[in-house]
Each structure stands twice: as structure tokens, then as C-alpha cells.
Amino acid sequence: MDNRVLVFLKYDCPTCELIRPLLADIQKKVPSLEIIVQDDRKLFPSLNVQEDNDLEISFNHEIEIVPTAIKLEKNTETVRLVGWDKKEWKELFKFSQENYTLPDMKPGCGSKSVEPGVFEKLAVKFGGIEFRSRNLQVHSFKDEIEFCFERGWSDGLPVVPPTKERVFLMLQGTKREPSELLGLMPPNLQPCTIEKVAINAVMAGCKPEFLPVVIAAVEAALDPAYCLHGLLATTWLSGPIIVVNGDIRKRINMNWKGNVLGQGNRANSTIGRALQLTIRNVGGGKPQEVDQATFGTPSKLGFCIAEDESTPWTTLAEDNGFDKNESTVTLLSSDGPVGVIDQISREPEGLIRSISESLKIINHIDMANASDTIVIIGPEHGDVFDRNGWDKKSTAEALYKATTVPAGGDFGMITNDSVENLETEKKNVPKFRSSGITLIRAGGAAGLFSAVMPGWLMNGESGTNPVTKEIKN
After folding, report:
1. Greatest CA span in the chain, whole angstroms?
2. Within a 13 Å sphere around the CA of 287, how many CA atoms are in the beta-carbon half?
3. What is the β-pairing status of strands 76-82 and 304-306?
4. What domains, with CATH codes, occur in the chain?
5. Which of 136-140, 160-164, 417-421, 449-453 has the lowest mean pLDDT?
6. For 47-62, how does the pLDDT look when each residue is reduced to its tens digit (9 = 90+)?
7. Alpha-carbon gap, residue 276 to 284, rounded angstroms
8. What gap in Å lies between CA 52 and CA 436, rounded to an integer?
9. Whole-prediction pTM
10. By the 8 A CB rule, do 237 and 296 touch?
11. Fewer Cβ atoms within 10 Å of its own Cβ: the N or the C terminal residue of the chain?
């Protein structure tokens, strides 16, 4: 029938119950009226109804509230009434209001098709959703989490089974096409698509709104400047660390305050884990295979933090050419944190001495240019720099000058950069290349502490360079 009116109801809705007598009378006079119910027809004895127990009709007509009336002319929707509005329903059905005691307006109830956990199942079943990744069936008697362990998809901790419904819901976090190719993931150089990233984000425990951050982190990892293959294959400890800047930090409730490097924040924990799982499951970067780390580090489960942007210093995003309000990720490498204590210094020069002494011991006290380093300045140390007018650039320059090591030692990893800067009179050489100290502001308010986080070999073409990418919706 080309011209008809559909009315959607459910049993436990007071508004639907209210208009049942009216619909029973209208149905006698309007043959084109079809009443579709989301329950057993026996619950509606006064009406001639069509059951929609599997909710396919409700899904296809995008029903969010019941009652909903839809007028179709030549199978094209021309009118949609949501909830009860006596004036609108009277105009559609031409009934006499004197015969019914009905309020002028009454809101409807949520459709069963949009209840939590239902919509994604309907989308996968009836929405024509197709996935390019393999679909593996798990027998009902098999534990899904144990199945994921057996397939080698886990980092050693339980993962969330990536069902079609969960992956579909995760993909709603981005406007990008699931088939979009981001690049070839090392070490096995396998195609890495948005869909593949979404699958691993599900397993990591991410929410859909985290997905754009994970995608940006993957894009950074795939940038040749990051040298992901080298970082994976090294025998050293390091793994990736993600630093998030911009408005998205607040939107997804990231942590840049107390315990910023630890557990307890879902976004921080799962975004970092999703990157590592993508590297593992798409690229094949597994321990004791291509990943040859002698020790590794707990942070290789996943390492992601947000930066405190409430300070006078420029943010990491601004340092890399982005506006402060733009949402970005910067991918670096890190072994893990080493604490720096200075509860005495009240002048920047004293803090520079304390932090630089901690920096000198990285890798070996006589080794220069073996790696770059991240220095996280805690809030109370940061206040010392701020009160004395020291910005990020002057602080980094002071640390660079203060971190020299004796040139006479067998430090082995000396580079042209450090030779050119060799202080012939003092026979000292810079511990780091000129751009090798990255400063970040973060941490809890209590404690005159900072943290040093050395990374893997960071010497231009022979190692990892930090990479910043915009987070795109």
C-alpha cells in the first residue's frame, strides 16, 4: 500500500495506554492505519496490530519514542508525530475530541529499539553493516575472554571481546570510513585501517569518544620519523608514550593531575593500551619475537597522559606548531619515570641543578646522545619557575647547558652534533642533542617533585623523533 499511516506502540508506556481507545475507534474508520507493537499482540486485545518483536520495523523507521505516528504517501514519509499532541493527532486523523478525555499534550516513552545495548545489535542485524575483518564464531560453551587469550590477542591482561556490536558502537566515535587505510603497521607491515584500530580499541576498553585519539596516536606511530619498527625491535626498555593536548582532554575526562603516570583514569589507561594492542595484533609486535626488549617496562602495556594547560608555559602542541585549542597527540618514547626530589630550592637555578643531576645518570653517567628525555615538571616545581618569570624555552636551554658529561669517558654513542658542541677547554660534551629535552607540565599539587622519563635512541634518522598529529573527528 503506497499511502498509509503507521503508529508504533509498546505495552508498558502510559501514553500508549492512554490513546488505545482512540486508536481502536480510528482503526475502524481508517483502513490505511497500521498499528505496530513492540510486544506480544495479546497485550493489545482491543486493537488489530502487527508484532515487531525483533524490532526490525522500529529500527528501519528510526523510532526513538513511542507513540510515534508516521504518514507515508507513495512510501515517502510526509508527517511524523512523536509523543501525544492532541492538536497534531486530530489534524492527522480528523477525530472528534468530544468523545475522548485526553490531555492536550503528554510525552511518550523510549522505544525498545533504542534501549541500552539494543540499538547496536539492531544496526548490525538489520542495518546492512559490513565488516572487512574476519568474523570468528565462538561456541556458546566457550568463555570469550579465554578465547581471546588463546588467539594471542591479549597483552597479558583480559581484553573486551570485540563483538560486531561493540565494534559498530566504537566506530560511531569517528566520522572517518572504517575502510580508510592509515598505513602499513610494523613490524609485519600489515594494512592498518580505521576498522582494525576500532577493534583493538574495543579490546583495550575504550569508549567510542576515545577513538579519534587512538587513531591519531596510530597515525603518529606510522609516521616514518617515529621509527616504530626500530623502537619495537630494540633490546632497550622503551615503548611509546602518548601526550594529549587541547580541548579533547576535558571532553573525555583525561587526567593530568595526581597519579598522572599511574592507574585510575579510563581514558589515559585504555588509549595507551589500544595503541599497543594495535601494534601487537595488526603489526605483529609481540615480546620475544620481533620485540626483543631485554627488560621492557610496565608502561609498554600502554602509556598515555594529558598535559596541564593551565600554566603560563606553551603546551607541547603549541611547541609543534598547533594552536592551543587544537586537539593533538604527540608520540614520544619512554622507559618509565624516575622521580626528582628537591624540597629546598626556591629559585629556578637550584631546580635546574637538581633536575640536571638526575638527567646526567640516564643510560650511563658517561654516555651522551644515547637518547632524548622527557621531563615532567610537577606543579610545585613549576610554580618556582613561574614566579621567577622562567618560560619553557629558557628552562629547557638552562637544562641543556647544565647537562654535560666528561668527554673523556667511553660513552660510545657520541654523534656529530655532540662533537661540534664539544667544549674543548672543559672537555665536556652535551648529554642530549639541542632539541632532546621535552618539557611537560603535569602532576598532583602536593609534593615538590618532578619526573625524568628517558627514552629510546633519539638521534634523528637513526632513532625516534617525537611526532605530533591533529586529532580528527
Report:
1. 105
2. 19
3. unpaired
4. 3-114 (3.40.30.10), 129-333+458-472 (no CATH), 336-407+427-455 (3.30.2320)
5. 417-421
6. 999 999 999 999 999 9
7. 11
8. 64
9. 0.89
10. yes
11. N
